[in-house]
Amino acid sequence: MARVLPLALALALVGPITGPAGQSGNAPDGLLLAVLPCSNIETTFKKFYPLLSYLKAETGIPVTITVPTELSEFESLIKNGSVDFALQDPHTYRQVSKDFDGATLLQTVALNGTTAQSGVLIVRRERGLRSLADLRGKTVMFGPRTSTPKWVAARMLFEAGGVSVDRHLRAVNGGCCEDIAFEVFVRTVDAGVICDHFLAQHEARQKELGVDPASLDVIGRTPAFPTRVFAARRGVPAERAGAVIAALLRLDANLPAQAAVLKSAEIRGFVRATEQAYLAEVARATPAGQR
Question: Helix %, strand %, coil % for the chain, to 5?
Fold first, then answer.
C-alpha cells in the first residue's frame, strides 16, 4: 500500500515545512509527489525534506510525499488524480508515460555528474562468496520491483551470468539501499543489490546504522540505465507544473545551500529531457524480450 507520511511523524522527524511568510506546509491546495522506488517512507522523507522545503520557499506551494510500494498502487494514484508529480525509475516511466506530460520531463543528474545509473551486488567479505554462481541456492535481497537498478537491471546481471533469479535463488524484495546493506551486514541475507553510489557516498550513514563498510565486497555490477525522471501528471495546471519545474531547474550544485538540498536527495541536479529520446534510451538498455 502506498504511504503518505503522517504530518505528526513528519514534524517529529524534521520539523514543520514553512514557506514564504512562514506559511504552514499542510495547506489544502498542496501537491502530492510520488517517489519511487524506495519503499521506506521515513527514509524517503528525510532524504527529500530539503527539496520539499526548497520547492515551498521557491513556489509557495506545499508538497507532500507518497511512496507507492507496487506499480499497481502507483497506477491507481495516477488514475484517480491523487498524484501531481512523480520521481520514478526509467522502466516505470516507460509503462506509465502516457499519463504524464512529456513537456515537463526532467532527468536527474547522478552524484557522479552523469545521467546513467546501475546497481552493485554486495556480500559480506568473510562469507567467501565471489561470483554469481556462488549465490545459487542463497538468499539475495533486491530492491522494490519499481526499481530499475535494483530489480530490472539486477535480474539482467544474474541472467547474463547463467543464474536464474526465479529458479536458482531465494529472492526477496527489500526497500532502500540502507535497509539492504544492513540485512547483508547482519547476515539476514547472503547478498543484496544496492545503488552503485551508496557505498562510496554514504559511509557515515552506514556507520550510523552500525554497518562497517569495509566488511562488504562488491562482486557484480548491473547494466547501466538512464537515471530517474521527474514529471507532472497530465491534468496538473500548467502554471503550477511550470513553477515547480522551473524551481528544480534553478537548483545549482555550485551554491552551498542548494548543493545540500541536492546531496540529501542523492542527486546532483535536474536537466530537461526529451521524452522520445529518453524512452529510446531506455529501450536500448532493455533486453529485446522485455521491451
Answer: 45, 20, 35
pTM: 0.86
For 36, the grid coordinates are 519511487
pLDDT in tens, 235-282: 999 999 999 999 999 999 999 999 999 999 999 999 999 999 999 999
Residues 44 and 89 placed together within one structural domain of the fold: yes
Determine contact, residues 132/190, Cβ cutoff 8 Å.
Answer: no
Query: 5 in helix, strand or coil?
Result: coil
Could you list the residue range(s) of the whole structural domain that residue 29 is in? 3-114+226-290
Sequence-ordered list of residues with C-beta below 8 angstroms from that of 111, at least 6 positions apart, any chain: 197, 201, 263, 266, 267, 268
Domain with residue 270: its CATH number is 3.40.190.10
Cβ 183 vs Cβ 193: under 8 Å:
no
